[in-house]
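>> received
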Amino acid sequence: MTDTTVSGTGLADTAHARSAETVRPRTAGHARLSAKAALGWLWGFTVVRRAVVLAALAALWQVAAVWQNNPLLFPTFTDTMSALASALSEGDLLPAALVSLAVLVKGYVLAVALALVLVSAAIAVPFLKEVLLTLTAMFNPLPAIALLPLAMLWLGLGEASLLLVMVHAVLWPFALAALTGFEQVPETQRLVGRNYGLKGLPYVALILIPAALPSLLSGLKIAWAFAWRTLIAAELVFGVSSRAGGLGWFIYRNRNELLTDRVFAGLVTVIVIGLAVEVLFRAVEQKTVRRWGLQR
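>> returned
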């Protein structure tokens, strides 16, 4: 009776040990799968992917600067971030960025509105379409910054000169994208608008613009990039001429004083603003053309 009890207890202990050994690797496997699933879920976010890329670039920057060992020519990432924090706390970087953004918004909105008017007229009148295509072929390849000397001669050293080169930088690429998008609107949608009696501005606003929104957003992004680069370059010249300006003047002034880390801080600010606007455009795309099935 005792032998039977002992042997039964031994069998139970052996079974329990085997069960524990079986559960343990399964639990570890489940943990690995859960961690992999969590990483996959995080990687699905654009912000996370961008953050990983930016972190890798920052690490490469730091290593390259340490290897170069010449802060005057190439400061480290940590020194640049310190200069950026210092410039923000001293109150000279943020006002410069706000000045640049204010001029950018004015020129950008003015150019987009003018481009929509020109494209709408070109859609309505075939001859005006030829005029617009000819003007676009002429002026689109012309760098906007090349007009700055004439703008300064005509309009002086004020904001009007900056707005002129900004309008030139935005108008032609956006007009070309808008015209292409309007021409690609399906004929069935055009007929719907005509059957409802839409003409002129209501026809453009209610039929053409929603249908051509992917092309319009693409044109807006391209025009934004041209405008931002043109503005910073123009402000570099304005900084030399009138000792006033936005981020371009901030970069130029610190370059003259051999404060390379602050120059890089200004460049980082330009990049950060560009990334923020890109995120804004992506959010608009998600809420409009991708939700409506107009774009993947």
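>> The chain has a mean pLDDT of 81.
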